[in-house]
Design a protein that fits this description.
It contains ten helices and no strands. By secondary structure, the protein is mainly alpha-helical. It has a domain at about 5-135: Hypothetical protein af1432 (Orthogonal Bundle), CATH 1.10.3210. α5 (about 85-95) packs antiparallel against α6 (about 100-110) and α6 packs across α7. The chain is globular and about 40 Å long.
């Protein structure tokens, strides 16, 4: 497996400046969240670093990877903005030689999510939404406050899904059924 310095060098060459800065922020935020939730901080840092490694590739190239190498279902191909997540897991394994399934799964689902996400997957998903380098500071502070509440991780995720669903509706974009199922699952979990 490539070390963090080699990965950072590759990311600097293959991502635009804002995406590179975002990736560094997600790595740091994921590490902080891992410490908060008693998970491996170095593993979270690596997942955060790699989460968007495929983001600046052409959508048609990513779609080809998803169809030929990943065998994704059609629901995962509804929105080209999400192609980079499963393709990123493929890149992490093929280019960076990451074998840890927990890291690969977290990269795979960091954009849409999945039902019954593990705590590790949840913190990578959340770190992507609240990292301090490129994300809205007020939003970040709101989510950090929610994290301090009882069942805060699930409540923070629910807030992210509420925001995403509203945004998709406002822009008249398709909403994959997985997003709706995750939203309902989180709502059930919080209301239980």
């Amino acid at each position: 497996m490539k070390n963090n310095e080699e990965i950072i060098f590759w990311l600097k060459k293959n991502l635009d400046d804002e995406r590179f800065l975002h990736s560094l922020g997600v790595a740091d935020c994921a590490k902080e969240l891992a410490i908060k939730y008693n998970l491996d901080p170095e593993k979270a840092y690596l997942a955060g670093l790699l989460h968007d490694c495929a983001k600046c590739q052409k959508n048609e190239d990513l779609k080809k990877i998803l169809e030929e190498k990943m065998h994704c279902d059609m629901e995962e191909l509804l929105n080209p903005k999400t192609y980079h997540s499963p393709a990123g897991a493929y890149f992490a394994k093929e280019i960076f030689k990451v074998e840890d399934e927990e890291i690969l799964n977290a990269i795979y689902c960091h954009t849409v999510g999945k039902e019954q996400m593990t705590t590790f997957e949840k913190i990578i998903f959340l770190a992507d939404k609240i990292e301090p380098n490129t994300r809205n500071k007020d939003w970040r502070n709101k989510i950090l406050e929610i994290l301090e509440e009882e069942n805060g991780l699930n409540k923070a995720l629910l807030a992210c899904y509420e925001y995403t669903i509203k945004s998709l509706v406002d822009r008249r974009l398709k909403i994959c059924l997985t997003t709706i199922r995750i939203y309902n699952e989180l709502l059930d979990n919080i209301n239980a």
